[in-house]
Design brief:
single chain; 145 residues; mainly beta; 6-stranded antiparallel beta sheet; two-stranded antiparallel sheet; 27% strand; globular
Amino acid sequence: MPNSSPQAGVAATTAVRSRARRNWWSNASVGHSCAAPIGKTGELELYCHDREYGITELNEPIMAISHDGFFTAGNGPWLTPYLDTAVPGIRELFRIPNRVGQAAVPIPIVVTGRFDDPRAKDCRPDAIDLCRHRLVLEQIVRFGA
């Protein structure tokens, strides 16, 4: 995987102090499960699904999965936000079908949100920074053309 991180690029431009900026949404989620980390995980950790869906700065899928199960990550900055089901429009983000062997088509998205959510303190010690840098999506301003 390229060394893009949630802190680089998108995190700085997607939602800083509730400013909105256009980026790209894609979903490469597939049905699977992961072994749970040792210890209680915090709500913002998303340990199993980080980078399967999310927002990219470039017009590219966050990740593509080939027919034989190989993952190819996008090249640019990305982030996987925390999505509260109470935010209107969240379910629409996942109604776009993911086709194994084909990259998900990125869809323009404008959101607002925040970093440094108080729930980061509930994350495991080795994940606190990850949780502090997690975008907590507050509003989908625009999704699609």
